[in-house]
Amino acid sequence: MRTTNKNGVGNSDEHEQEPDAVPQKVQVTPHWNAIGGLVAIGVLYALLPDKISIGPRGLLLVIEGVFILPFVIAVSTRRSVSPITLRVGSMILLGIVTAALGIGIVHMILTLKKELNGFQLLYTGLLLYGCNILMFALWYWEIDGGGPERRQQPAHQLSDFLFPQQMGGIDENWAPHFFDYLYVAFTGATAYSPTDTMPL
Which residues pair with 198 in a beta bridge? Predict the structure, then answer.
């Protein structure tokens, strides 16, 4: 609806957007970093001793490949992937990885009485420690703010972690990347408490 004021200047009830007013894009985390984290967990898990891991050494890598390969093919062929399908598949895969890691830790604890080799214990512990950090980083990346797909929305406000870059309105267009969640997982596993990133 258009009206005219006393000076004869036309006014519009609807606000027209200026051509120069281009909405700023939010930097988001690529899925390739998360896929790399999953593959790293599979590799570390494959290096575990046979008495700690479940089944063949490369079983977890094969399971990850079954979930990851369709996504990689879809991206390579430029086919759209449903966000719901992607999120459900990610949750199922993370659940499997978490269960495998938990069983590995239980196996290590149960074999402590029989195996007292210090080098073997440190080797196994470091591998499980690395898997633990990567696993929590993936969980944080997947659940924070409703997931990576929802965090891509420009008007997205929901978040579960308060990063230093988000304090005081320093950069409203900043969004956490996978390596930010990796740092949070590392500090949480090392200090057993949040450091500069606070959970909300």
Answer: 162
